[in-house]
Amino acid sequence: MSIQADKIIAVRTSKTIYRDGDTVIKVFDEGYSKAEVLNEALNQARAEETGLPIPKILEVMKIDGKWAIRSEYIPGKTLAHLMEEHPEKKEEYLNFFVDLQIEVHSKKAPLLNKLKDKMNRKISETSFDATTRYELHVRLEGMPKHNKVCHGDFDPSNIIITPEGKAYIIDWAHATQGNASADVARTYLLFNLHGDKEGAETYLKMFCKKTDTAKQYVQKWLPIVAASQSVKGHAEERDFLLPWVNVVEYE
After folding, report:
1. Any residues with CB less than 8 A from the CB of 98 and at least 6 apart, and which?
2. Alpha-carbon torsion 39, 234, 150, 135, what sign?
3. Which end of the chain has less neighbouring CB within 10 Å, N or C?
4. pTM of whole model > 0.70?
5. What angle do CA 177, 48, 66 make, to 5 degrees?
6. Residue 224 pLDDT grade (very low, low, confident, very high; cuts 50, 70, 90)
7. What torsion do the CA atoms of 142, 144, 148, 153 make, to the nearest 10 degrees?
8. Which residues contact 217 (CB under 8 A, 6 or more apart)?
9. pLDDT score, position 210
């Protein structure tokens, strides 16, 4: 099976996403880890079982020697796109975004990988000195253990809004079960990474108010999340994350 190049709908690091009728095919670059492809498919299948609005996985296959995942095509625009189109509705969209993330955190998926295990492994893989790694491991160990579904990359670009106004959450490659505030710290860093500091602060304030969570509690996760995120990602993202790892106290 081959894919028509004119059907490309997105190109991301190490993968290309095509539309094929009423389905979407995510094709991974040659040499991409088979285990990671299968883990992504498994994560999404497990998240689907929670009843959250997620495009269904239809099959995992090989195309021209490359691993690929086929899932349902959801027509619509990303929430990020809508925020750009209607800046006057930004707060309204953020409100909706936070409510959707709270819904994700309300779910349980006992077979998902544990967030703490993943972060401990990632911290060990970083190039930080032994003292920094030790401090990060200790901080992580001291954080409360929860088992909420965490998306791991909850960003407006991963929310598709259909013409009827229904939201679907895509890209479950980084899903785990664990502490929701770690997921919030990741989203906060993503807003900052995109250069939207104001959006980041509004988002964090909104989430903390709706869930009665202390802002300082989420901030305690920032160095841990930034460190674990710095292992993979572009050089630009790594450079952005490094200062967050070294910040111990916040105002």
Report:
1. 203, 206, 207, 210
2. positive
3. C
4. yes
5. 95
6. very high
7. -40
8. 181
9. 98
